[in-house]
Amino acid sequence: MSSDYTRFTNLKFGRPSERILEIILDVPGKLNALNAAMHTELAEVWRVIDADTSVSAVLIRGAGGAFCAGGDLSMVENNMTDWETLLTSWKEAKNLVYNIINCSKPIVSALEGPVVGAGLTVGLLADISITGRTTRIIDGHTKLGVVAGDHAAIIWPILCGMAKAKYYLLLCETLNGEEAERIGVVSMCVDDDKVLTTALSICEKFVKLPPAAVRMTKYSLNNWLRTAGPTFDASLALEMLGMKGPEVKEGVSALREKRKPSFDPSCPL
Predict the structure, then answer these.
(1) What is the pTM of this model?
(2) Contact by Cβ (8 Å): 94, 151
(3) pLDDT digits over 59-92, tens only?
(4) CB atoms within 10 A of CB 204
(5) What does the DSSP assignment read for 3-64?
(6) Checking DSSP bridges between strand 107-111 and strand 57-62, what pairing results, if any?
(7) Bridge partners of 69?
(8) CA distance 56 to 70
(9) What class has domain 12-195+202-257?
Protein backbone atom coordinates (compact mmCIF):
# COMPACT_ATOMS: atom_id res chain seq x y z
CA MET A 1 0.00 0.00 0.00
CA SER A 2 1.28 3.45 -0.92
CA SER A 3 1.90 5.82 1.98
CA ASP A 4 0.18 9.18 2.28
CA TYR A 5 2.59 12.07 1.68
CA THR A 6 -0.02 14.82 1.81
CA ARG A 7 0.94 15.74 5.38
CA PHE A 8 4.35 16.85 4.11
CA THR A 9 3.08 20.19 2.84
CA ASN A 10 6.49 21.86 2.46
CA LEU A 11 8.05 19.19 0.26
CA LYS A 12 6.99 18.35 -3.27
CA PHE A 13 6.68 14.80 -4.54
CA GLY A 14 6.55 13.14 -7.91
CA ARG A 15 6.41 9.68 -9.46
CA PRO A 16 8.70 10.03 -12.50
CA SER A 17 8.73 6.29 -13.15
CA GLU A 18 7.26 3.10 -11.78
CA ARG A 19 8.17 2.48 -8.10
CA ILE A 20 10.33 5.63 -7.93
CA LEU A 21 9.47 8.43 -5.50
CA GLU A 22 10.82 11.89 -6.29
CA ILE A 23 11.34 14.48 -3.53
CA ILE A 24 11.69 18.05 -4.79
CA LEU A 25 13.05 20.92 -2.73
CA ASP A 26 11.36 24.03 -4.08
CA VAL A 27 11.73 27.48 -2.54
CA PRO A 28 11.63 30.02 -5.39
CA GLY A 29 13.98 32.97 -5.10
CA LYS A 30 15.99 31.42 -2.26
CA LEU A 31 17.90 28.66 -4.05
CA ASN A 32 15.72 26.15 -2.17
CA ALA A 33 17.07 27.13 1.25
CA LEU A 34 15.22 25.18 3.94
CA ASN A 35 12.87 26.94 6.31
CA ALA A 36 12.01 25.45 9.70
CA ALA A 37 8.96 23.57 8.44
CA MET A 38 10.89 22.03 5.53
CA HIS A 39 13.66 20.99 7.89
CA THR A 40 11.13 19.21 10.10
CA GLU A 41 9.55 17.36 7.18
CA LEU A 42 12.87 16.44 5.58
CA ALA A 43 13.92 14.79 8.83
CA GLU A 44 10.70 12.77 9.13
CA VAL A 45 9.87 11.74 5.57
CA TRP A 46 12.44 8.92 5.43
CA ARG A 47 10.55 6.86 8.00
CA VAL A 48 7.44 7.02 5.84
CA ILE A 49 9.42 6.08 2.74
CA ASP A 50 10.99 3.16 4.57
CA ALA A 51 7.53 1.74 5.27
CA ASP A 52 6.10 2.49 1.80
CA THR A 53 5.89 -0.80 -0.10
CA SER A 54 5.20 1.04 -3.37
CA VAL A 55 8.68 2.62 -3.40
CA SER A 56 11.83 0.84 -4.59
CA ALA A 57 14.06 3.89 -4.99
CA VAL A 58 14.08 7.59 -4.11
CA LEU A 59 15.30 10.49 -6.23
CA ILE A 60 15.86 13.77 -4.38
CA ARG A 61 16.56 16.99 -6.26
CA GLY A 62 16.09 20.73 -6.11
CA ALA A 63 13.92 22.84 -8.37
CA GLY A 64 15.16 25.49 -10.77
CA GLY A 65 18.68 24.18 -11.31
CA ALA A 66 19.71 24.45 -7.65
CA PHE A 67 19.77 21.71 -5.05
CA CYS A 68 19.72 23.58 -1.74
CA ALA A 69 21.45 26.66 -0.33
CA GLY A 70 21.32 25.29 3.23
CA GLY A 71 19.11 26.42 6.06
CA ASP A 72 17.35 29.75 6.00
CA LEU A 73 19.30 32.31 8.07
CA SER A 74 16.25 32.89 10.26
CA MET A 75 16.58 29.30 11.51
CA VAL A 76 20.07 30.05 12.78
CA GLU A 77 18.90 33.27 14.44
CA ASN A 78 16.05 31.47 16.18
CA ASN A 79 18.47 28.85 17.46
CA MET A 80 20.62 31.62 18.88
CA THR A 81 17.82 33.22 20.85
CA ASP A 82 15.30 30.53 21.79
CA TRP A 83 16.19 27.47 23.89
CA GLU A 84 13.23 25.32 22.83
CA THR A 85 13.92 26.04 19.16
CA LEU A 86 17.53 25.02 19.64
CA LEU A 87 16.49 21.71 21.23
CA THR A 88 14.09 21.06 18.37
CA SER A 89 16.82 21.81 15.82
CA TRP A 90 19.20 19.43 17.58
CA LYS A 91 16.63 16.63 17.56
CA GLU A 92 15.67 17.18 13.92
CA ALA A 93 19.28 17.41 12.72
CA LYS A 94 20.04 14.15 14.51
CA ASN A 95 16.93 12.47 13.09
CA LEU A 96 17.68 13.71 9.58
CA VAL A 97 21.04 11.93 9.57
CA TYR A 98 19.97 8.71 11.25
CA ASN A 99 16.66 8.42 9.38
CA ILE A 100 18.47 8.63 6.04
CA ILE A 101 21.01 6.06 7.19
CA ASN A 102 18.27 3.73 8.42
CA CYS A 103 15.93 4.13 5.44
CA SER A 104 16.01 0.77 3.67
CA LYS A 105 15.23 2.16 0.20
CA PRO A 106 18.17 3.26 -1.98
CA ILE A 107 18.39 7.05 -2.29
CA VAL A 108 19.88 8.90 -5.26
CA SER A 109 20.64 12.64 -5.05
CA ALA A 110 20.80 14.88 -8.13
CA LEU A 111 23.11 17.74 -7.15
CA GLU A 112 22.96 20.97 -9.14
CA GLY A 113 23.96 24.56 -8.38
CA PRO A 114 24.71 25.27 -4.72
CA VAL A 115 24.68 22.32 -2.30
CA VAL A 116 25.11 23.67 1.23
CA GLY A 117 24.33 22.89 4.88
CA ALA A 118 21.28 20.73 5.54
CA GLY A 119 20.91 20.18 1.79
CA LEU A 120 24.44 18.84 1.70
CA THR A 121 23.48 16.43 4.48
CA VAL A 122 20.91 14.76 2.24
CA GLY A 123 23.06 15.05 -0.86
CA LEU A 124 26.06 13.23 0.58
CA LEU A 125 24.23 10.73 2.79
CA ALA A 126 22.29 9.53 -0.26
CA ASP A 127 23.48 6.11 -1.38
CA ILE A 128 24.36 7.42 -4.85
CA SER A 129 25.16 11.09 -5.48
CA ILE A 130 25.21 12.54 -9.00
CA THR A 131 26.65 16.02 -9.47
CA GLY A 132 27.06 18.44 -12.34
CA ARG A 133 30.47 19.77 -13.28
CA THR A 134 29.71 23.31 -12.12
CA THR A 135 27.88 22.28 -8.93
CA ARG A 136 29.22 24.12 -5.87
CA ILE A 137 29.53 22.01 -2.72
CA ILE A 138 30.37 23.78 0.54
CA ASP A 139 29.79 22.83 4.17
CA GLY A 140 29.85 26.46 5.33
CA HIS A 141 29.66 25.95 9.09
CA THR A 142 32.99 27.28 10.37
CA LYS A 143 32.73 30.46 8.28
CA LEU A 144 29.40 31.09 9.98
CA GLY A 145 30.96 30.55 13.40
CA VAL A 146 29.68 27.08 14.35
CA VAL A 147 30.99 23.51 14.34
CA ALA A 148 30.54 21.41 11.19
CA GLY A 149 27.98 19.23 12.93
CA ASP A 150 25.13 18.53 10.49
CA HIS A 151 26.61 15.43 8.91
CA ALA A 152 30.26 16.16 8.22
CA ALA A 153 31.96 14.11 10.93
CA ILE A 154 29.97 10.97 10.16
CA ILE A 155 30.49 10.85 6.39
CA TRP A 156 33.31 13.06 5.02
CA PRO A 157 36.27 11.10 6.45
CA ILE A 158 34.75 7.89 5.10
CA LEU A 159 34.13 9.39 1.66
CA CYS A 160 37.39 11.23 1.03
CA GLY A 161 39.75 10.50 3.94
CA MET A 162 40.67 12.61 6.94
CA ALA A 163 43.20 14.85 5.17
CA LYS A 164 40.72 16.09 2.56
CA ALA A 165 37.86 16.19 5.08
CA LYS A 166 39.82 18.50 7.37
CA TYR A 167 40.87 20.74 4.49
CA TYR A 168 37.35 21.32 3.21
CA LEU A 169 35.51 21.33 6.54
CA LEU A 170 37.91 23.49 8.55
CA LEU A 171 38.44 26.04 5.77
CA CYS A 172 34.95 25.89 4.21
CA GLU A 173 36.52 25.67 0.78
CA THR A 174 34.16 25.20 -2.17
CA LEU A 175 34.24 21.98 -4.20
CA ASN A 176 33.08 21.89 -7.80
CA GLY A 177 31.54 18.71 -9.16
CA GLU A 178 34.65 17.44 -10.92
CA GLU A 179 36.88 17.81 -7.86
CA ALA A 180 34.19 16.29 -5.64
CA GLU A 181 34.18 13.19 -7.83
CA ARG A 182 37.99 13.08 -7.99
CA ILE A 183 38.42 12.94 -4.22
CA GLY A 184 35.44 10.65 -3.66
CA VAL A 185 32.92 13.00 -2.04
CA VAL A 186 30.29 12.14 -4.68
CA SER A 187 29.59 9.01 -6.70
CA MET A 188 29.63 10.49 -10.20
CA CYS A 189 30.10 13.80 -12.02
CA VAL A 190 28.33 14.38 -15.35
CA ASP A 191 27.59 17.32 -17.62
CA ASP A 192 25.23 19.77 -15.95
CA ASP A 193 22.37 18.98 -18.32
CA LYS A 194 22.69 15.24 -17.64
CA VAL A 195 22.37 15.29 -13.83
CA LEU A 196 18.64 14.58 -13.55
CA THR A 197 18.47 12.02 -16.34
CA THR A 198 21.48 10.16 -14.94
CA ALA A 199 20.06 10.12 -11.42
CA LEU A 200 16.70 8.86 -12.69
CA SER A 201 18.32 6.13 -14.77
CA ILE A 202 20.13 4.88 -11.66
CA CYS A 203 16.84 4.78 -9.76
CA GLU A 204 15.37 2.75 -12.60
CA LYS A 205 18.24 0.28 -12.28
CA PHE A 206 17.43 -0.16 -8.60
CA VAL A 207 13.80 -0.95 -9.46
CA LYS A 208 14.96 -3.93 -11.55
CA LEU A 209 17.31 -5.35 -8.91
CA PRO A 210 16.27 -7.84 -6.19
CA PRO A 211 15.06 -5.56 -3.37
CA ALA A 212 16.07 -7.63 -0.36
CA ALA A 213 19.64 -8.02 -1.64
CA VAL A 214 19.96 -4.28 -2.31
CA ARG A 215 18.45 -3.21 1.00
CA MET A 216 20.46 -5.61 3.13
CA THR A 217 23.64 -4.59 1.33
CA LYS A 218 22.83 -0.96 2.09
CA TYR A 219 22.17 -1.86 5.72
CA SER A 220 25.52 -3.64 5.98
CA LEU A 221 27.51 -0.83 4.39
CA ASN A 222 25.82 1.80 6.55
CA ASN A 223 27.19 0.08 9.64
CA TRP A 224 30.35 2.07 8.88
CA LEU A 225 28.27 5.20 9.46
CA ARG A 226 26.60 3.78 12.56
CA THR A 227 30.06 3.07 13.96
CA ALA A 228 30.85 6.77 13.52
CA GLY A 229 27.64 7.73 15.33
CA PRO A 230 29.29 8.88 18.58
CA THR A 231 31.62 11.15 16.60
CA PHE A 232 28.64 12.69 14.82
CA ASP A 233 26.68 13.05 18.07
CA ALA A 234 29.55 15.00 19.62
CA SER A 235 29.94 17.28 16.59
CA LEU A 236 26.22 18.03 16.48
CA ALA A 237 26.12 18.81 20.21
CA LEU A 238 29.08 21.15 19.80
CA GLU A 239 27.35 22.86 16.89
CA MET A 240 24.34 23.51 19.11
CA LEU A 241 26.63 24.80 21.87
CA GLY A 242 28.17 27.23 19.40
CA MET A 243 24.73 28.68 18.66
CA LYS A 244 24.93 30.38 22.07
CA GLY A 245 28.40 31.84 21.51
CA PRO A 246 29.70 35.13 20.09
CA GLU A 247 31.18 33.77 16.86
CA VAL A 248 27.89 32.80 15.25
CA LYS A 249 26.45 36.20 16.19
CA GLU A 250 29.23 37.90 14.27
CA GLY A 251 28.90 35.43 11.38
CA VAL A 252 25.16 36.04 11.00
CA SER A 253 25.55 39.82 11.39
CA ALA A 254 28.20 39.86 8.67
CA LEU A 255 25.92 37.95 6.31
CA ARG A 256 23.00 40.24 7.05
CA GLU A 257 25.14 43.34 6.54
CA LYS A 258 26.95 41.87 3.51
CA ARG A 259 30.43 42.45 4.93
CA LYS A 260 33.40 40.35 5.94
CA PRO A 261 33.13 38.99 9.50
CA SER A 262 35.63 39.98 12.17
CA PHE A 263 36.12 37.18 14.70
CA ASP A 264 37.95 37.68 18.01
CA PRO A 265 41.18 35.60 17.79
CA SER A 266 41.62 35.43 21.58
CA CYS A 267 39.73 32.17 22.05
CA PRO A 268 40.42 30.22 25.29
CA LEU A 269 40.23 26.81 23.55
Answers:
(1) 0.96
(2) no
(3) 999 999 999 999 889 999 999 999 999 999 999 9
(4) 18
(5) PP-TT-TTSEEEEEETTEEEEEE--TTTTT-B-HHHHHHHHHHHHHHHH-TT-SEEEEEEST
(6) parallel
(7) 116
(8) 27
(9) alpha beta
Mean pLDDT of the chain: 96
In eight-state DSSP terms, residue 268 is: -
- Domain ranges for the chain, please list them: 12-195+202-257
β-strand partners of 115: 68, 137
Q: In angstroms, rounded to a whole number, what is the distance separating the alpha carbons of residues 90 and 95?
A: 9
Beta bridge partners, 13, equal: 23
CA distance 12 to 23: 6
Q: How is the chain split among helix, strand and coil, in percent rounded to 5?
A: 55, 15, 30
CB 24 within 8 A of CB 63: yes
CB atoms under 10 Å from CB of 149, counted, come to 25
Please tell me the distance from the alpha carbon of residue 197 to that of residue 72, in angstroms, as a whole number: 29
